[in-house]
Write a structure and sequence with these properties.
The protein is α/β, with parallel strands linked by helices. It is built from 9 helices and 7 strands. The longest helix is centred in the last third of the chain and has 18 residues.
């Protein structure tokens, strides 16, 4: 999760800015980040990509784009963000790969050529405060090659809104109907639409209720006992195996997999 595609570190909410470095440091090993990355990879496995680079929007500390660089060593893997800490973290990882680069840019103005990318990934980015979703989707469509792919993850359900959203930069939560409408008529063919983080939805709902009541701080989830974290990660990894071929009707997150088609 990153706010950096729409806000500089100077503009960020104070508590949000304080949490970001901890998130970047923890994302490589945290149960939530590892489990959700497994789900994202599961949705992408076997996808027939055209030639071209892979771009992650709002790459944060770069854990996912680094894994993509490792999986696709012959492709350029670009991690895009605006937050200086995020860019520095990705740049620090780049020497371990021959194909990983950090790029500072805004999702509304992508500094890439038309029809240049094979895959664009946006994980908890286009639901961030300040993002104009139609403008961002039009930019993504512009830079994708015909037949290129978009993997998008956003926060689900308005009723899950809590102080967590403010502290982590979430500006809007989406439904499946919202995303279908956003993609309709824009040169996209919707291939998958599924919820994820389903088994843990009741636990998350209780946590968000407690946050709204002030009984729990929003940073509490950054520290989880190791044994509990391992079990929670296994839950998400089981969902990843399920989602490789099948969808889920409810969950904390909402994924879309869409392909660029030519406008008539």
């Amino acid at each position: 999760m990153s706010i950096s595609d729409t806000q500089s570190s100077e503009m960020a909410h104070p508590s949000q800015a304080a949490l970001l470095p901890a998130l970047y440091q923890a994302e490589g090993q945290s149960w939530w980040s590892r489990g959700m990355r497994a789900i994202s990879h599961g949705l992408l496995d076997g996808l027939p990509l055209p030639a071209g680079p892979i771009l992650e929007l709002g790459c944060g500390g770069g854990a996912f784009i680094a894994e993509m660089a490792e999986r696709f060593p012959q492709r350029l893997a670009l991690g895009l963000d605006l937050h200086p800490v995020a860019l520095a973290t990705v740049a620090g990882k780049a020497p371990a790969f021959g194909n990983l680069q950090a790029m500072g840019a805004d999702v509304h103005r992508l500094p890439l050529r038309d029809d240049s990318c094979a895959l664009v990934v946006g994980l908890d980015v286009l639901d961030q405060a300040g993002v104009d979703l139609p403008v961002a989707l039009a930019e993504i469509w512009r830079i994708l090659k015909p037949g290129g792919w978009l993997l998008l993850r956003v926060s689900a359900y308005d009723w899950l809104a809590s102080p967590h959203d403010q502290d982590f930069g979430t500006g809007r939560r989406y439904s499946g109907a919202d995303l279908r409408q956003a993609l309709a008529g824009g040169g996209w063919r919707l291939r998958r639409l599924t919820y994820a983080n389903t088994v843990l939805l009741p636990l998350v709902a209780v946590t968000r209720f407690a946050e709204r009541r002030g009984w729990l701080s929003t940073g509490a989830g950054l520290e989880t006992p190791a044994m509990l974290g391992q079990q929670l990660q296994r839950v998400l990894e089981a969902e990843a195996r399920w989602l490789h071929r099948r969808s889920l009707p409810a969950g904390v997150s909402l994924y879309v997999l869409a392909q660029k088609i030519a406008l008539e």
